[in-house]
Amino acid sequence: MVHPAIEISGLTKRYGVGDAAVDALKGVDMIVRPGEVVGLIGPSGSGKSTLLKCLGAVIEPTSGRMSLAGETIYDNGWKVADLRALRRDRIGFVFQAPYLIPFLDVTDNVALLPMLAGMSNGKARDRARQMLAALDVGHRAQAQVPQLSGGEQQRVAIARALVNQPPIILADEPTAPLDSERALTVIRILNEMAQRFGTAIIVVTHDEKIIPTFRRIYHIRDGRTYEQAGEARAA
Amino acid sequence: MINLAGRDILYGWGKFVFTGLGLGLLVGLTLSMAGIYRGLVDDGKVLLENVGADLWVVQRDTLGPYAEPSNVRDDAYRTLLGVRGVAEAGNVTYLTMQIRHEGSDVRVMLVGFEPGHPGEPGYLVAGRPITRSHYEAIADVKTGLRLDDRIRIRRHEYTVVGLTRRMVSSGGDPMVFVPLQDAQEVQFLKDNDALVNERARTAANPAFNRPGVPGLLEAVQASQASSRTVNVVMLRLAPNADEIVVAREIRRWKHLEAYTRNDMDEILVAKLIATSAKQIFMFLVILAVVSAAIVAFIIYTMTLNKVREIAVLKLIGARNRTIAGMILQQALGLGAIAFVVGKTAATLWAPIFPKYVLLLPGDAVLGAVLVLVICAFASIVAIRAALRVDPATAIGG
Lengths: 235, 397
Ligand SMILES: Nc1ncnc2c1ncn2[C@@H]1O[C@H](COP(=O)(O)OP(=O)(O)O)[C@@H](O)[C@H]1O
Ligand SMILES: [Mg+2]
Hints:
The structure holds two protein chains of two kinds. By secondary structure, chain A is α/β, with parallel strands linked by helices. Chain A contains seven helices and ten strands. In chain A, the strands form two sheets. A six-stranded mixed β-sheet of chain A has the order 6-7-8-3-9-10. A four-stranded antiparallel β-sheet of chain A has the order 2-1-4-5, covered by helices on one side. The longest helix of chain A has 18 residues, at 180-197. Chain A starts with 5 loop residues before the first strand and ends with a helix. In chain B, strands 1, 3, 4, 5, 6, 7, 8, 9, 11 and 12 form a ten-stranded mixed β-sheet that branches. A two-stranded antiparallel ribbon of chain B has the order 2-10. Chain B is of the alpha+beta class. The chains are: A alpha/beta, B alpha+beta. The interface between A and B is medium-sized, with 29 and 26 residues. The complex binds adenosine-5'-diphosphate and magnesium ion.
């Protein structure tokens, strides 16, 4: 059988200690299959970013379990030694803002990831150019970051998230700064990529325009998740 | 892997270059300071070399003639010539004074010497040695005098017949060489009024003006008027003579102090310019601290401006080493720019310094190493700040 790309059960996260403690996650359960794009929706302060940070191995959860492609990475404690390599090789990040590196050109912004993983500059740039072409920004490969429009920057950021072909991508409000047309384009691209590379993608959003595009949605409220079939499937 | 530091420098090169320029001028100042010190030492060496003496004989218990005043009777050289191993002797006087030339005052060190004897300037860049025993002068080019210029020293006019280079006193005053007797007249002889006064005083003293002893008064007056001294007697030794032995002989029997070339080196470097050297060293320390503070501040602000990028780099899996390396390389790059600017500036402005500035390649290498070390240290604060950046901040709230 095929393992789910992401499997989370009973995950909790408490910030701080004593009176100042905040229980940001109180029991999260979630399953995402390869090639699936799911929405994660919830009001501000409900724990969306916290969940992505835990899954992205940027902060440590308090308890629970997380596994990627059947491999347990967290079970009341980290089960992988090199979290940096885990982030680099198995997880792609897309943020609300593109956060491109301004002193690198578009190609090198994307090529940096395979380079950090030890790939030669030439190969890494080839790979980056392919990915940029796949995202329809191949013609901007030589440009400097400030010359790009917001939508183009966000596509470059997606190319960067995809370039190492990680099995999962975590996107935190990736369409927030975009108008609805561009927002839908970004979602269409994420869907295409999921299909093409079998990537599991979690998109955090409260963008009304794109919510209807998800086949499956997780609602998060007060640190707990509730699954809901999306409109896209119903339609 | 691409060089992140280099890309960042190219991206913000304006800021980088201007900071490098500013820092470079500080480095240039530092190198010039070191050069001035080297120049002082070298001036002393050239001075000692150029007079062609093996021994300097000065007044007992003094560090004369350069570091302390010294007076030796001008006939002492005769007995010195009698010491075994002494080949030649020359009387020399030194006097710092102002001379007038073309309406402006020049501060010089007036040197009286005996042509053909030790103490004569060894190397002329133009003109000829002094041949007449009066009213000819050899001047250092630093005085601004040219051949055939006429200068007025006290009551007489002198013609410049030769020019020297790098002949300056330890205070940096260029030298003017004149025949010994002229110099002595300037330095020791009293003016006419003083002479008349003194004669009258001697005549009024019953001890010297005795009616029963004819000629006594005249003899006393003559001795008073012509009692002459010099500041140093320079000796050249016979080829096989040991200067240390000869110096010891002179000290023991002649009631005079004798210094070898090494002794004079020691006096000039260790005693005379020791204060200047300390002062210069203080400046060097202050400049180093100021430079370090500037580099630290610049690199730190540059790093704080990149917190977001650093968080992203960490999130996508860049090692701490990669990020620390980027900051360190930028600091070193800044140092390298500063050093190149500084070395160029120091070389360009060295000739317009009033004092001789000697830029030694060894000092430049040492300076480069020092600049890089300072930059490396200055980047520590920024590196620590960068390593504290939490990759979670890239994801945001
Ligand atoms: N570093 C932190 N320290 C303490 N509390 C935090 C921290 N980050 C988030 N929180 C709290 O955790 C809860 C969930 O925050 P977050 O995951 O950012 O929510 P969302 O992204 O859904 O707006 C909020 O109550 C927030 O105040
Ligand atoms: Mg959030």
